[in-house]
Hints:
Elements: E1 3-13, E2 33-42, E3 45-51, H1 52-55, E4 65-68, E5 72-76, E6 78-80, H2 92-99, H3 104-109, H4 114-122, H5 126-142, E7 145-151, H6 158-174, E8 178-186, H7 197-214, E9 220-225, H8 232-244, E10 248-253, H9 261-267, E11 272-275, H10 281-288, E12 293-296, H11 298-304, H12 311-316, E13 322-323, H13 337-348, H14 352-359, H15 361-365, E14 384-389, H16 395-398, E15 405-409
Parallel strand pairs: 1-4, 1-5, 6-7, 7-8, 8-9, 9-10, 10-11, 11-12, 12-13
Antiparallel strand pairs: 1-2, 2-3, 5-14, 14-15
Amino acid sequence: MSKILIKNIKGLVQAGEEIPNVKKGKEMSTLNIIENAFLALENGEVLAYGSMEEWEGILDWRGVEVVDADGCFVLPAFVDSHTHAVFAKTREEEFVDRIHGLSYEEIAAKGGGILNSARKLSEMSEDDLFEAAKKRIEKIIQSGTGALEIKSGYGLSVEGELKMLRVIKRLKGYAPIAIKATFLGAHAFPQAYKANKRGYIDLILQEMLPKIAEEKLADYIDVFCERNYFSVEEMEEILKAGQAHGLKPKVHVNQFSILGGVQKAVELGAISVDHLEEMDENDLLALQQSNTIPTLLPGCSHFLSIPYGDARRIINAGLPLALASDFNPGSSPNYDLMTILSLACIKQKMTPEEGINALTINAAAALELSESHGKIALGRRSPILLTKEIPSLAYLAYAFGEQHVQRIFL
Ligand code: NIG
Ligand code: FE
């Protein structure tokens, strides 16, 4: 039995019994904060919380670990709803090529990019991939992330995709945080199928999906809908096949071009549409008539020097917005969601409150974890984040690059 009392908390954030499961538009600009608060946990479950004046005498606190959080904030740990955290090797050589002037798309056209990662992954054993991912996840948790989505998509062959998804399944069993798995076989056309795209789609539909469903290896299905990758029609066919196997859509759309993928994904009931560096009025209209969560990935915009998704336009349209890291070796080699929060505030003109809602409540919704993550309420086992001593909550976004996390309670 482990009992923990966190006391003298400068601000207990997102704590309350009536907080909605999704925050939209103007609602995103406010946070529930209890000042000078306490939080009591028993085996990770929220037993009680409130202001310091109320805590004494509520519970029997013999044998508890008392944490003095004077000057510190407590928040629900962040949720990272979009990552590619299982990969073989980092890709610094492409980073240097881009410094010398090549674009991400030019590098991909030369056989670099996703295909480079696929080659490297084919040379690595499942055990080695698992060990590497385990170490990454330990660092991810220490950075303040309390739930994680991980995609396949660097396999691009039956064996490769299954290998990645089996690694993610093993991580689910190993890691002390919630992990959701997304099948992204349609991440790129492998070299051998460049002239036979139909052949690769058939491989996804007829060989990968049935095995993935049989071994229960994925929760979601994703497609990279983009010029030179998968068309809207190809995405539709693949998502529908995934749905027939019980996988819900969660997709990469509008990173470089607007093809109509947002409307199609919304029509198919996508849980989220991610990237949206490019967006038009039709995309917004489609999203307004849906429960799909638009998700922006400012780490990718920063790293690739491409436009940032227009967060203000999304929020001003009354929509919910989630933020995620897109952690991957090619377009966003950063998993730290505090950095994402800073980028969102500095580059996308989100307020710190909007950013925190986007990384907690709305990110939990984008992973269907609203019942357990994103807020602090009685009886919940949400992972909790304790900051270091900081002058204000906005400081988390303001002091970019500084380490703000003191401790994570799982
Ligand atoms: O989300 N856009 C597609 N996929 C990844 C990048 C993959 C890579 O370059 O390895 C992304 O940015
Ligand atoms: Fe991605």
